[in-house]
Amino acid sequence: MNNSQGIITMINGPVIQGSNMSDYKMREMVTVGNKRLIGEVISIEGDIGTVQVYEETEGLKIGEEIVSTGKPLSLKLGPGMIGNMFDGIERPLKRMNSMSENFIAEGIGLISIDTEKEWEVDIFVKRGDRVTPGLIFGEVQETSLIVHKLMVPANVEGEIIEVKENGNYTVEESLVIVQDKNGEKYELKMYQEWPVREPRPVDERMPISKLLATGQRVLDIFFPIAKGGTAAIPGGFGTGKTMTQHQLAKWSDADIIVYVGCGERGNEMTEVLEDFPELIDPKTDKPIMERTILIANTSNMPVAAREASIYTGITMAEYFRDMGYHVAIMADSTSRWAEALREISGRLEEMPAEEGYPAYLPSRLAEFYERAGYVKTLNDNDGSVTIIGAVSPPGGDFSEPVTENTKRFVNVFLALDRELAYARHYPAINWLNSYSGYVKVLDNWYKESVSENVPDVRAKMLEILYEENKLQEIVMLVGEDVLPDDQRLILEIAKVMKIGFLQQNAFHKEDTYVPIEKQFQMLKTIEHLYDRSYSAVKKGIPISQIKDEELFNDIIKMKYNIPNDDLQGLENLNSRIDEFYNGLERKYSDD
Amino acid sequence: MKKEYLKLDRIEGPLIELSDIENVSYGEVIDIKVKGEDKRKKGKVIKIDNDRVVVQVFESTSGISVNNSSVSFTGKPFELHLSKEILGRSFNGIGEPIDGGGEIFSSKIFNINGRPINPVARKYPRNYIQTGVSSIDGLTTLIRGQKLPIFSGNGLPHNELAAQIVKQAKISADSNEEFAVVFAAIGVKHDDADYFRKSFEESDAINRVVMYINYADDPIAERLTTPRCALTAAEYLAFEEDMHILVIMTDITSYCEALREVSSAREEVPSRKGYPGYLYSDLASLYERAGMLKNRKGSITLLPILTMPNDDITHPVPDLTGYITEGQIVLGRELNQKHIVPPVNILPSLSRLMKDGIGGDYTREDHPDVSNQLFSSYSKVQEVRALSQIIGEDDLSETDRKYMDFGRDFEDRFIGQGFNENRSIEETLDLAWDILKVLPVEELDRIDPKLIDKYLKKLK
Asked: What is the C-alpha to C-alpha distance for residues A390 and A235, in angstroms, rounded to an integer?
């Protein structure tokens, strides 16, 4: 440790410089000034160090001290994170509110998970056991949904020489003492510390093979996200990025959700805090808040902490992955994070690349998205981290640097469309320019878990949507009436697809979440409608007869009228389709 | 003993530089006394590098030379003294009275930069404000505590719409609760400021209005403090005095241009269209001050007005604003040319908070479905119109012709209510049904059939 202290020599917004800092390490956490603001060293040149400060710097003076903490920006990872809301550097916002009412003051200091709360701990190891990094030595029931597994930290290996009894402890109490082969002793507590910018180690990365079921039809059927995969949701303002992210946070079948509100609206975080405790997870019947961690750096909170918030989120996600959980992290929005990089880079007077963004933007994005994955953990469990990042392109223009570079590193691209949003078609995911790289990879999963036919039906229905898009161009020029009947049928079926299948009402009790089985049955019903009506067209029956308003309408409304847990209604619809077209064909063959 | 510094190093635009300065803190306010001028100028420290200090002057720097002024440091950030006496008063962009009245004396002192509201302390806004304007109440409902900007263009009647909202808005449902308007004019024409003052007088609101005015010919740097003073006053009235506050800020585009000017004087790396990279964070530090708190009765509803340069919604100012605010009300030039006023172009307009503040518990049970249906049908109208321009209206299918009728009716009666009519939410929704009945019933695919039975059958 060094005893020399830095002295502030320059202040420019969230960036400060100090002299006498040659002993400071890159990325080290420091406290700045008399108010002890928290900061991080981001460059060193000679004895001049540059620090980004995570709090408001107003009132700082030249000559105040910069004090080293001797460690990089790290998190305390332990029980007490789930159900909580933190700022960008893992400070619990509820505690901060009790220290500084309503408004966030600076100089609160580095606080983290609750150190006073007692947890009931079960310890699995005994004296004389050998432990290796990642080994699970005990557990705590953190919420009714989540068992928090206590793991041996990454640098500890050796023999246990002391163990506490099962019982109630706080996170700061030492539970196990391990001695390594050099005689060095380590105290294991309920928490471990980990630097946010470093990926946590795993045994090996495994191939992606499972769907992250989200209950959203357009995703699960057409543009699936895989467990351990990466997805980006770009869209201009008002296209429903946050709404989509909220839906995914609410309904996807991950064990744990980390939701990072990065530079977004304060009221949105408040909404999550109010809604989530009341929403019940369909699989576990427990409030979804019991599996959710929130990280909030709203757009008016200090910009440097925005840069850190993404790393804080992903580190927490990796920690739970290491216990053998499937974790999904939603980052809303990665553009704000990129802008925070740009802002700090600008203050450092670095040479800008495209649109003022620093040249290291693509590598930072790659580093972040590469922390996703399906892995075998050090304790031989399966775990995964899925990253779903929202992107807010300026002017909704997807050719800007953040969207372009994100596209290179993600496998699922869910393009939100302004035109669809204007027509209140939600989720406004444009099926023409979205894609998922997991469709092929997940073929087997669909065949085993849903039905042999999923890939074929999906391809066929997507084809109809593409075809409709081409026909629409003709319709825009000459009107619908001049098209031949088989093409007009495509338009009608595409309309059923759009309203009855792709559109999904997040505020409707039945429709907000739909199990994959029902999704596929719905799709098959529409396919069946298409097959029967198509063969009727081929028999020369006019489209006006084929399109039975009531039948089409009931198929469009099946998402509302047929309950998720009783699919009999879909069977009935299929029989009605058969009855109707059998009748129609009989009538025409008789003539 | 305060030190006075008598020599400046550099003067450029709104910035001055000094050296050999000791013990100065970041963000501190300074006093500049120029020889031969009575009034002291104010400035703020925006960069410290060793003993050199860069100061942004809030007033004009013309007349300052490197030798003719003395600068003293106050040791304090920019603060306002506030009491309820500010109601009915007018101030300039740095909070000094310009109406001939006296200074505000109060022991309550607030830093104009405010502090971010802790998200856990916020109360989620749910109570709607009836503005009496159908296009807003029905389709982009304003919620108490919301920030909802008006995106306009030069020559469009955004001021009239804002004045209509001030005149008609039922800001507090309960008449015992107090409300007030805080008006921030940023780089506006004298005419515009007068228009607002007059319309406040006409609506008898003038004693409940606080004005912070920076005219178009006032110093640029003062534009940066005008909205901050106004929002500080709003925070004080809302969270210390339990009042419901409607803040109107116009024109945000002037604010952003001032920010760009100062940034370029500081030789910062520009991002889009020359605006600084921190434009988003800076705008957020204004807009995010709207809202409600769990343990306070008052609220701040924010209605910023911005003119889109060249009517371009992708310009950085409306674009970044749209990413921060909870929706937007967009005015359309085409509607205005057809004399449909207020010319609210509903398709790109949106209120994000409306979903939780409408429906049976707040407005009426049919409100969510009806507004959805209007959006979807009106967007269909656009397609039909495009088609009819090519093949002519006579060749349209029967349904499409009905859409054309619906479109005209909707624009004339629903949107084009004029600036003087005040409609209740029931009137707005009843009118919507009356217009929707033109369409075949199977086209009403966004409305619950039960509601169609209840409301439409009644009309037919």
From this structure: 8
Q: Taking CB atoms and an 8 Å limit, are A271 and B124 in contact across chains?
A: yes
Is A591 a residue whose pLDDT tops 70?
A: no
Selected residues 140-199 of chain B with any CB under 8 Å from a CB in chain A: 145
Residue that the structure tokens 């999963």 belong to: A445
Q: B66 and B23, same structural domain?
A: yes
Q: Which domain holds residue B50?
A: 4-77
Are B241 and B319 in a shared domain?
A: yes
* Residue A291 pLDDT > 90: yes
Q: What CA–CA distances, in Å, run from A468 to A277, A480, A512?
A: 42, 12, 27
Span A454-590: which CATH code?
1.10.1140.10
Instruction: Report pTM.
Output: 0.91
Structure-token pair, residue B205:
């609101």
Asked whether the beta carbons of residue A267 and residue B316 sit closer than 8 angstroms, the reply is no
Q: Candidates 2.160.10.10, 3.40.50.2300, 3.40.630.30, 2.40.50.100; correct CATH number of A119-190?
A: 2.40.50.100
Q: Does the pLDDT of residue A460 top 60, yes or no?
A: yes
Strands (E) in A214-324, as ranges, are 230-234, 256-262, 292-297
Number of domains in chain B: 3
Residues 6 or more apart in contact with residue A379 via CB below 8 angstroms: A134, A135, A136, A151, A322, A323, A324
Task: Confirm or reject contact between A98 and chain B (CB < 8 A).
Answer: no
Statement: A6-74 belongs to CATH 2.40.30.20: yes
Tell me how far apart the alpha carbons of residues A241 and A244 are, in angstroms, rounded to a whole number.
5
* Cα dist from B305 to A548, A549, B150, B183, whole Å: 49, 46, 5, 11
- To the question of domain A204-449 being in CATH 3.40.50.300, the answer is yes
pLDDT score for B460? 64
Residue A137 burial (C-beta neighbours within 10 Å; 0-12, 13-18, 19+): buried
Distance from CA of A85 to the nearest CA of B (A): 8
Please give the pLDDT value at position A366: 95
Q: Which one-letter amino acid corresponds to residue B278?
A: Y
Q: Which residues 515-574 of A have a C-beta within 8 angstroms of B?
A: 549, 553, 556
Q: Where are the domains of chain A?
A: 6-74, 119-190, 204-449, 454-590
Q: What distance in Å separates the CA atoms of residue A579 and residue A577, rounded to the nearest whole number?
A: 6
In chain A, the residue whose alpha carbon lies closest to the alpha carbon of B295 is A102
Residue B104 falls inside a structural domain: yes
Q: Does residue B23 sit at the A interface (CB-CB below 8 Å)?
A: yes
- Residues B275 and B419 placed together within one structural domain of the fold: no
SS3 track for B369-421: HHHHHHHHHHHHHHHHHHHHHHHCHHHCCHHHHHHHHHHHHHHHHHHCCCCCC
Pairing of the two strands B52-57 and B41-49: antiparallel
Q: Looking at residue A1, what is its pLDDT?
A: 43
> With an 8 Å Cβ cutoff, are B281 and A396 in contact?
no
Whole-number pLDDT of residue B175: 61
Q: Summarize pLDDT for A88-131 with one digit per residue, the tens.
A: 999 999 999 999 889 998 888 888 999 999 999 999 999 999 99
Residues B267 and B307 placed together within one structural domain of the fold: yes
With an 8 Å Cβ cutoff, are A266 and B122 in contact? yes
Taking chain B (460 residues) in runs of 10, the rounded mean pLDDT of each run is 82 90 89 87 90 89 88 91 94 92 91 93 92 95 95 94 89 71 94 92 86 92 94 96 94 94 87 88 94 94 95 92 93 95 93 89 92 93 90 87 95 95 94 94 87 84
CB of B296 within 8 Å of a chain A CB? The answer is yes
Selected residues 316-345 of chain B with any CB under 8 Å from a CB in chain A = 316, 319-320, 322-324, 326-328
Which residue has tokens 């992606």? Answer: A208
From the candidates A91, A299, A339, A549, which should be mutated to test the interface with B, based on the most B CB atoms within 10 A?
Answer: A299
Confidence check: pLDDT of A442 > 70 = yes
- Output the pLDDT for position B174: 62
